[in-house]
Amino acid sequence: MTEFKAWLLAENPDSRAQATLGRSYLAWLRFYRNPLAMIGLVIVVALILMALFAPYIAPYGMTSGLTGNELALQRFQPPSAAHWFGTDGQANDVFSRIVIGSRITLLIVAIVIFTAPILGFVIGTVSGYFGGWVDGVLMRLTDIFLAFPKLVLALALAAAMGRGLESAIFAIAVTSWPAYARLARAETLTIRNTDYLAAAKLQGASHWRLITGHIMPLCLSSLIVRVTLDMAGIILTAAGLGFLGLGAQPPIPEWGAMIAEGRDYILSYWWLATFPGLAIFTVALGFNLLGDGLRDVLDPKSGA
Amino acid sequence: MVNQATKAPLLAVNNLNIRFPSVHGAVHAVRDVSFTMGREKVAIVGESGSGKSQTGRAILGLSPGQVSADSLIFDGIDLQRLSSKAYREIRGKRISMVMQDPKYSLNPVMSIGKQMIEACQIQMKVSKKQALARCMQMLEAVRIRQPQRVFKAYPHEVSGGMGQRIMIAMMLLSSPDLLIADEPTSALDVTVQLQILAIMDDLVQDTGMGLILISHDLPLVASFCDRILVMYAGRIVEELDASKLDQAQHPYTRGLLSCLPSHATKGQPLATLERQDSWLDEALENRGLRV
Amino acid sequence: MTDHQEQAVIAVKDLAIYFGRGEHQVKAVDQVSFAIPPRQSFGLVGESGSGKSTILRALAGLDHVDQGQLLLDGEPLQIKRTKAFYKKVQMVFQDPYASLHPRHTVDKILAEPLAIHGFKDIEQRIIKVMDQVALPHKFRFRYPHQLSGGQRQRVAIARALILEPEILLLDEPTSALDVSIQAEVLNLLNRLRAELSLTYVLVSHDLAVVSYMCERVAVMQQGKLVELLQVDQDGKTYPKQAYTKQLNLASQGYDRARIEQFIDHD
């Protein structure tokens, strides 16, 4: 192990891979020393594991399937050894629903991560790199999308596409990419006139090579930080849409929708809204802490 | 050029050390630096990382590192015992500093005149009218021909040389006893550079203030200052009269001079500096020490 | 001069470059002409704002040209430079801290031009060029922040040399370095020019550097070419223009009496 560490921290690496790994290891060391960031990482990793192994973790199914007398007996049970987070009006186990619901949260996160930031990143770097009319057209387009209020657009989409998780995710993705485009463009503008970019141009590098090989790697870290910090907001927006009945529809255990269901009973059956609320709170906090930690590690101004 | 240091030391630095804690162990940026000076022009010369700037900052109490010294006496005042409030009183009023780039020392959204008057009022506690008069007087002292016009201008509207004159004028508002100039002219063109030095020269002559000029340019400071302290890796390796630069003993000082293109024969390679570990007296704790 | 122009590798004819518009327009370069024969080291010297760097950047294709012509081997340069141009002309920038990509290792920096131009023997060429600039092989997989200023400038020179160009445009290659490091880099540049029969265009504010390095020097002031000087074998120039004389005096150090006679630029 110590040998491996020495190899990673070697002042004069012998290969490209060793140099890259060494740099990543140094970044990890910096991240590791930040306790809050580590808490964030643990929360996010726990969320991912929970979503992956949801069927094995959840003691009950998504729905109880009970009817009649059984349902009447089992519904609205307070937290107990059998039902850690109690049961809801359909006698469903709240803990199981939260565990299974983590898949939905993660699905939203994953879909948004692989659409909005990537689209925004490409538009932003291209716009910033070329400038001129390309920049003008792309940035006006961005402005138009930036002017859409998220919830109103979601309402419109729900009306057009029908209520459901898909329209909620679509609404979030469509309204969140412009922020990334702006960020990527601003970063690109600071890089555009640097000597190292001029030097690469003088080697005859194509626009494609300059954007993907020189500009994107430098913009990427601030994008990652921004996306991580935004994840909390995206989860909250999704939950908000669920709460308004525009996102996931019952009986899908989306956390926001679960709070909405529990809203009517908040005084008599406190656990219905509290536990999904805590779940949203914890995951949002986790992403925020992780984002802050990543910012310290990935800050392009820190040199390493 | 009488060496007044022996008579009444304006500043006495005894065994100054500055360390910067880092993940790889402490970096010893300044090691056992000692010197005394009077109301004269002293140059601290060295390459990047030699600790020359940190020495200047430590005298002003502005070093970000861990400063320790046997004594740090300015005009009878023990600087190490000063409260931060008392230090602020001295800083700007009795000891001033001019930085390399005036762009970063002036507030970009405030007119130059306003900044000068504000600085003047804070330092000297005088009325606005008196402050204005004093500012005009100082702008004329640094030979700005149209002080009225400069007064109304914003920092981005003046050239680098003009900006540096304004900074010097600002630093001299309270007629300090000691001016520390950290590479005040290295961002400027050579003719402007000399004009700025001439202004500082005259001010030293007229007001009798002491000047510490921190620079990397050995021949230039030799033609300008009274005494030179040559720093290498945090130490003063040689101290000599400026007029006797050609009699420098230390191989580092000699090396710095001989590697200049102006001292070379065309067609012959330039002499390069062979650094000796013995110059350090002790092994450097960190390579690539850059301050 | 006509003789020069026929065989010149680089010729600049009535070059004019303007920045800004309307009343704020600045003539960064104003009707400048010169020609550089092969294997000469040609200096452009002047104070800030004299247009010396702008000419170099225009030659490299990094700045626009408003009037006049730039010729390479007698052929006018097109606005869009070809790959063949970049193989022939390379540039070294002033600040080695800013001219190397912070996330690329030395190896990647050197490999990229080879990849762009489709070279096969990347490995051998990297080793060869690192030897040429006397950069120890152990630095090959380091990142720029792990190198000193002088080592970085060696990397930048290696990058410029790896395509085996004939012409190097040098933009203040040593002004960000300490004098002892400057000496090493200047020696390296002189040795490389002799070994590889290179043509240099060297921009500097330092008359001593230019006189030491170059055979001919163009003195620039506020966009205009003030004087073309021949440097004799002792590294001496004999300026006739008042501006050049003043520049010459100023570079000799501080002399209180002399400064009074300087013409003010502010």
TrEMBL record, chain A:
One annotated Gene Ontology cellular component of this protein: plasma membrane
PROSITE patterns registered for this protein in UniProt: ABC_TM1
Membrane topology: Multi-pass membrane protein
CDD domains hit by this protein: TM_PBP2
Start and end residues of each ABC transmembrane type-1 domain: 102-291
Main localization, broad class: membrane
InterPro entries on file: BP-dependent_transpt_permease, MetI-like, MetI-like_sf, OppC_N
PANTHER family hit by this protein: D,D-DIPEPTIDE TRANSPORT SYSTEM PERMEASE PROTEIN DDPC-RELATED, OLIGOPEPTIDE TRANSPORT SYSTEM PERMEASE PROTEIN APPC
Family per record: Belongs to the binding-protein-dependent transport system permease family.
Listed name of the protein: Peptide/nickel transport system permease protein
Species this chain originates from: Marinomonas pollencensis
TrEMBL record, chain B:
PROSITE patterns: ABC_TRANSPORTER_2
E.C. code: 7.4.2.9
Keywords: ATP-binding, Cell membrane, Membrane, Nucleotide-binding, Transport
GO CC annotation terms, alphabetical: plasma membrane
Catalyzed reactions: a dipeptide(out) + ATP + H2O = a dipeptide(in) + ADP + phosphate + H(+)
UniProt KW Transcription keyword: no
Domain of life: Bacteria
Membrane topology: Peripheral membrane protein
Domain ABC transporter: 13-258
GO biological process: transmembrane transport
Protein name, per record: ABC-type dipeptide transporter
TrEMBL record, chain C:
GO biological process terms on file: transmembrane transport
Name of this protein: Glutathione import ATP-binding protein GsiA
The protein's enzyme class: translocase
SUPFAM superfamilies the record matches: P-loop containing nucleoside triphosphate hydrolases (SSF52540)
InterPro entries: AAA+_ATPase, ABC_transp_ATP-bind, ABC_transporter-like_ATP-bd, ABC_transporter-like_CS, P-loop_NTPase
Matching Pfam families: ABC_tran
Membrane-related topology note: Peripheral membrane protein
Job description of the protein: Part of the ABC transporter complex GsiABCD involved in glutathione import. Responsible for energy coupling to the transport system.
